[in-house]
Amino acid sequence: MSEHQAILDKVTEIIRDLFDEYDGPVTMETTANDVAQWDSLSHVRLMVMIEMELGVHFGTSEMQSFKNLGDLVRAAAKQSG
Predict the structure, then answer these.
(1) Whole-Å CA distances, 40 to 14, 17, 44, 63
(2) DSSP of the chain
(3) Is the per-residue pLDDT at 80 higher than 90?
(4) Domains and CATH numbers, the chain
């Protein structure tokens, strides 16, 4: 399993936990627009949960630059690798 897939698997678990009504696909292309419950408040909670689980930290401007989960996964992999 690639490092990116391992990170995406952890992020998927967090998304499933936080957005318990969402049972759609979670992929590198997933965005907030794909998940009805994903609003600005839940975005902050999601980022905190991801940072704690993965042991990474994203700056505000870096978070704002993420276009999809793939960008987040690649940034996390860069920090942990």
Answers:
(1) 16, 17, 7, 12
(2) --HHHHHHHHHHHHHHHHSTT--S---TT--GGG-TT--HHHHHHHHHHHHHHHT----HHHHHH--SHHHHHHHHHHHH-
(3) no
(4) 3-80 (1.10.1200.10)
CB count in 10 Å sphere of residue 76: 24
Longest dimension (CA), the chain: 33
The number of beta carbons lying within 10 Å of the beta carbon of residue 68 is: 15
Model confidence over 42-75: pLDDT tens digits? 999 999 999 999 999 999 999 999 999 999 999 9
Q: Is the pTM of this model over 0.85?
A: yes
